[in-house]
User: What shape does this take?
Amino acid sequence: MMKPHTMTVRELLRDLTGDPVPPISVTGIASHSKQVRPGELFIALRGPNADGHGFLDEAVKRGAVAIVVEQAPEIRLPCPVIRVADAQKAIAEIAARFYGRPVERLRMVGITGTCGKTTTSYMTRAMLQAAGQRVGLIGTVAYEIGQRYVPSTNTTPGPLALQQLLAQMIDQGLQWCVMEVSSHALDQRRIEGLAFDAAVWTCLGSDHLDYHKTLEQYANAKRKIFTYLRRAPVDAAPREDRTVLGAGRSVINLDDPYGQTLAETLTVKPMVTYGVESVPPDCVRRTARPTPMVNVRVLTCSWEGMQLVVESPWGVFPVETSIVGRHNVSNIAAACATVLGLGVWPSAIQEALAQFPQVPGRLERVANDAGVQVIVDFAHTADALHRTMLALRELVRGRLVVVFGCGGDRDQLKRPAMGQVASLLSDYVILTADNPRSEDPQDIIHQIKSGFVPGFRDFSTVVDREEAITKALSMAHPDDAVLIAGKGHEAYQIFQHTHIPFSDREVVERFFARAKPLAV
Assistant: This one.
């Protein structure tokens, strides 16, 4: 753990305000009034759901010794109040100062895109580790700092938590941080002050339109990641770890139409592009694309894994992996392009992929003795469900049964779109609750059903998610596949504002623990 330390308000706000700043010592920083502890500095932020300026009294009562605001309060407070022009920008700089500017001592990889962020981040970390590097991870599943594993609360934390996590990585002797960067984080400027050695673009699909409103706004938020690339040092010396030190590089998927637009319009250099040579037999590439620098060819694809060939300016080499699903080849290509551009040798890539474990909740197979392929996957958009189901259709010899729902209080346009995908690609669909939040699960299910192709009747509705999963597993025969989609690694369900412990994987394990082997 990091050693506690103090700094003065004057040190933290140097050059950030025109107000007089007292040399009061602070022992911490908070941006949520309920998290303030005695002796800390409180920074009032304007968020999408609340304005911290409305909670100054509570921050003082909890022990804040100074407060940073954009707008001076109407009432006099019993502690210094310092005004700044932009609190979101200020908090990033204040946090960086308080935690010793860890980004200057860490090398950083940031990954954004609608699909593939988590798997690509795990693969990139594994490849860097195979090259002898010590690597931390920040993402949707967890924050991993050395031997410390913290379940994730946000894909990309806010600036205070982020700087603290990076400082803990330095404290643990880590050299790299691989992190997922969400569109919300980019739009809300949570990563102010970071500098990436590589910024990776996976793909653009339709998601989070409840927040961004239009696909164009969503895309514009995501492409901001390339404004955080590290500038080349003036006097870069060769590194002992054999990785390249220079300007941050953009890594772009040319199989993604918007990726092609990025490759044509981004002015930041250098750039590494990637793509996949083959597509599933029943899928035609929607757009022609230029030849990528890193190209991955699929030789074989089965339940046992895949054999691939990576073609790049850094060499042509074979890869074998137990990872399944042809759509994962794009994630492999993204990770390969990233680390090759950073100077990692092909042998480290081969070693990492040969030993690569399952990623939690990402096409994660649950072992059983019944001869049924049971897959838990986070697919919660139409694009993600389409990719996952196409990959499984190629592999399954029996029927493909899918269990899924859609989250409440989120983009409603994707509900019928996911229904259409499921009705086109599955043999049987079971609609159930996901995280309904404040909505009635039956209303959500009705919207999903509205997207079914005309005449589709091979479905049932089971609102209770555990009962729905149990029904799907009870239906399955050897060589069938059951896809449980939407929640992946999540260990809870959200009803109203209550989190109920729940795990898709644990439901499957309980079912097979008490079930008799199925007859062949």
